[in-house]
Amino acid sequence: MTGGPSSPVGSAVLFGVGGGNGSRGEGSASPKAAKEQRKGKGKPGKTWLSDENVAQFNGLQVEKKLAIDNMAAAAREHAQALAEHAATEKEKVKVEKKSRSTRNC
Fold first, then answer.
1. N or C terminus of the chain with fewer C-beta within 10 Å?
2. Where are the annotated segments for Disordered (predicted)?
3. pLDDT of the residue at 49
4. What is the largest CA-CA distance in the chain?
5. Is 93 helix (H, G, I), strand (E, B) or coil?
6. List of long-range contacts for 65-72, beta carbons under 8 Å, 24+ apart
7. What do you get for the CA distance between the two ends of the chain, in Å?
């Protein structure tokens, strides 16, 4: 394989793009048939996704977005709590210094 898995060539090989006989035993389609499929004129082949698969994928994407939003909200709340804690600690130190200085006088 030329290139790593993140390279276009590596990705094409990894996902079985580029024709040839893959492990599923599917032959490569002719360039004309592939062009017709892209234009929507060709017959749906084995590589087309069903509406059910697309709907499931879209549902997963929505769930993923919600999870990301929830994690971001939790991170913001955590950062705010840390800032409040730091402010409280700073105030504590200030009060302790003040009380020490009044005791020493």
1. C
2. 1-50, 82-105
3. 84
4. 95
5. helix
6. none
7. 79
